Amino acid sequence: MRKEKLSALIADNCPLVCETYRNIASKITKKTSNFSFNIDITYNCNGAYDIIKRTIEKETKLDFVVLDLKLKPSSNRKILSGEDLGFLIRKLLPNTKIIVVTDCNDNYRIHNVIKSLNPESFLTKSDLTSDEFKNAIKNVANNIPYYSKTVLKLLRKEVSSSFIIDTIDRQILYELSIGSKMKDMPNYIPLSAASIEKRKRHLKKVFNVKDKGDRELILVAKEKGYI
After folding, report:
1. Domain boundary pick from 132, 155, 178
2. Is the pTM of this model over 0.70?
């Protein structure tokens, strides 16, 4: 029986991890599956954007994206993470299925990604084995959502706030983390300085940060995987 050819993008900042994912996916297609993969690999947001752009320009398809949340930001500061790439994929390639793989195990962060991105599969690296990765691919290929056990456990827990950290919020956190001054932020973020300051105050409230400065906010945001 002829196998269906599927295209996939693996985006993770570690080359070894990317090669491991590709090898596992290749082993799936050699055995029982009725599909095979043509796989691209990238280690940062710039590379991923180039592949997305090429897919659109050539009017081809991108069936799967395996996406790490912690990717190196794009050089123009417009795509700051794997989550931003996910938003872009949802907008430009709505039929592409997203498998999120992350080392983050923060309850609020997991809920936030589910609400904002709604990936077809969500795996934590603490759960990740070759069998777990195979199961995710097989299920998603058959239109069955697949979440790893840690994600499912966290989803059962209540979160203290329904506030979603959006792209603008993450841009503010990123600019703070690299030492940008508030007066300069409107050059990179499409808001006035007053609106950015208001958002920053709200972020401190959401993260329960009491410090008047920004250091504690940056540390908490990094701990929760937003930077």
Report:
1. 155
2. yes
